[in-house]
Amino acid sequence: MTRTDWILSGVAVLLVVGLIVVLLPATSCVHYLPPRTECKNNLKQLALAMHFYHDTYRSFPPAYVADKNGRPMHSWRVLLLPFLDRPDLYKRYRFDEPWDGPHNRMLAANMPSIFRCPADPGPETNTSYFVVVGPRTIFPGAASVGIRDISDGTTTTILLAEAAESGVNWLEPRDLTHEEALRGINAKTGFGVSSHHHGGAMVVFADGHAQFLSDDTSVDKLRLFLERNDGQTVTLPAY
Hints:
Layout: H1 3-28, H2 35-57, E1 64-66, E2 72-75, H3 76-79, H4 87-92, E3 129-130, E4 132-133, E5 158-162, E6 176-177, H5 178-181, E7 200-205, E8 210-214, H6 219-226
Parallel strand pairs: 4-6
Antiparallel strand pairs: 1-2, 3-5, 5-7, 7-8
């Protein structure tokens, strides 16, 4: 092979390598979803699983299963596992010991990714999605609520909300309280409805549609979204 042939061969190799480098980002991003979009999809899938649960038991799951003394022992997230195509994990969970018992704590590392917003930088065993617990919300505690009990309408009553860097293990039967949620969207202090998405946080309503609520959502409006039977009407944001 002549010197010219070697040069031409080298140029051809460089062109091929360059083409691969150019094409790789495009092909690798085919299935990429922005964190906010993926978070929205997670909440919609969780809401769908909630409705499958409702179809089976005629109510949404309780916020928690209590022990004999009324203390939270097991989370709604565990109850939802069979409706998230994880009956295997549900069968491995033991309801005869607490969520953090010697057997159950070993399951924490198996958290389904659907329980976590991809924008949340916290530990991978912590959840990003919560129900809001209160006497007038869809989740009064250990009691179950059905669609029939949402007299204000499913389109304007929040089912689940996002809370970033919660520090809550997905198995832990702990959620947002009504008071915590009413701190506002992305409040500067305290645990509440929040996210790492710019300008607001994601929620999903009881009819299954997910929506982005902006930071400037008033506390009064947020209260109407959270309460299922306050008898007042509220208008959804345009976006």
